[in-house]
Structure formats: C-alpha cells, structure tokens
C-alpha cells in the first residue's frame, strides 16, 4: 500500500463531537520548538501537540473521545497517537522529511479542518488537508507536513500502529 485516502471517515455527528473538543477550551496544548529539524527551530517555527497515546497507554483523560477514530483503524496495537496543531503563518512552509519511526508500520493522518496545508510523501505526492479525511500510509517511509496560510491553524491527528 502506497497510501489510501478516505473522505468522510467518521459519521458527521461523531466528527462534529470530536472537533468540538479539539477546537474548544478543554484541550491542553504543549509547545514544541521546531517541527522536525534544527533549521526549523532556528527559523522560529513551532507547533503545539496534545498526546493521546504513548508508551503503551493513554496519555490524556480525553482518550475515549478519540476512540471512534482509532477503533475504525482496527489496530492490533497502538504505538503513538497525537494531535498536531500547526499555527497559521504568512508563508506555506514544508517541514522536513522524516519517518515517524525507523521501521515499517502503519500510519494515519486524520484532518480536522480544511486548509491549504498538506502531507507530502517521499515520491512528491501531496494530499491536501480536508476536514474528516484520513490518509493511511507506511509511516516508516519519508513524509512531511506543512503549516497553513488560509486558516487560523492546521489540526490533525497522527496515529502510528500495527
């Protein structure tokens, strides 16, 4: 599988319920200098993250809220799940190419809002951020993310699993 795109991944009611949490005041965001590499850090780029699952257990009291997304993937096991919040910037900037982990595994990027941001793969293919869209791919292969210029922020969940 190179990658798979599924639009309208969640039923509207479930999607709206989760989106309300993501864009609401209940979620705690944690600052991360840089995105992937030192160059971005030196340029003053940053993003915010909210970890959902890591180190073999849920890492937020909101884990159950995101379960509809995870359960539809039917993972044998989760490696990590986190919400990325890339703030608006005047220029659309591609972050550094990276693999989430140095081994083949399944990955999913689920978008919470439509914007001009995208996910780019090692082969040059770009997949736009469209609300309620999920992209499935091998996260052990190189890919990159972007910020957004036409929305207040680009928000997605990155899920790594087997």
What's the Cα radius of gyration?
15 Å
CATH fourth-tier homologous superfamily: q2cbj1_9rhob like domain
The beta-strand count equals 11
Q: Return the structural class.
A: alpha+beta
Fraction in beta strands: 35-45%
Coarse shape: globular
What is the CATH C level class, in words? Mainly Beta
**H-E order:** EHEHEEHEEEEEEE
CATH architecture: Sandwich
Kindly state the mean pLDDT as a whole number?
Answer: 94
In total, the number of domains comes to 1
Total helical elements: 3
Ends: how far apart? 14 Å
| CATH topology term | Jelly Rolls
**Oligomeric category:** single chain
Unreliable parts? none
Q: Main sheet?
A: 8 strands, antiparallel
Determine the fraction of residues in helical runs and give it as a percent range: 10-25%
Write the layout of secondary structure elements.
Blueprint: E1 3-6, H1 12-22, E2 30-33, H2 38-42, E3 46-54, E4 57-58, H3 63-73, E5 78-87, E6 106-111, E7 118-121, E8 126-128, E9 134-138, E10 143-144, E11 153-161
Antiparallel strand pairs: 1-9, 2-3, 3-4, 3-5, 5-11, 6-9, 6-11, 7-8, 7-10
């Amino acid at each position: 599988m190179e990658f798979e795109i599924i639009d309208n991944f969640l039923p509207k009611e479930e999607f709206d319920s989760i989106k309300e949490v993501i864009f609401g005041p209940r979620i705690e965001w944690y600052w991360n200098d840089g995105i992937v590499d030192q160059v971005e850090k030196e340029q003053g780029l940053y993003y915010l993250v909210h970890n959902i699952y890591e180190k073999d257990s849920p890492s937020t009291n909101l884990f159950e809220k995101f379960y509809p997304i995870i359960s539809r993937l039917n993972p044998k096991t989760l490696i990590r799940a986190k919400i990325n919040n890339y703030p608006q910037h005047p220029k659309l900037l591609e972050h550094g190419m990276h693999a989430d982990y140095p081994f083949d595994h399944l990955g999913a990027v689920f978008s919470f809002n439509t914007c001009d941001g995208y996910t780019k793969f090692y082969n040059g293919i770009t997949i736009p951020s469209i609300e309620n869209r999920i992209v499935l791919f091998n996260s052990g292969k190189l890919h990159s993310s972007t910020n957004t210029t036409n929305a207040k922020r680009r928000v997605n969940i990155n899920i790594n699993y087997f």
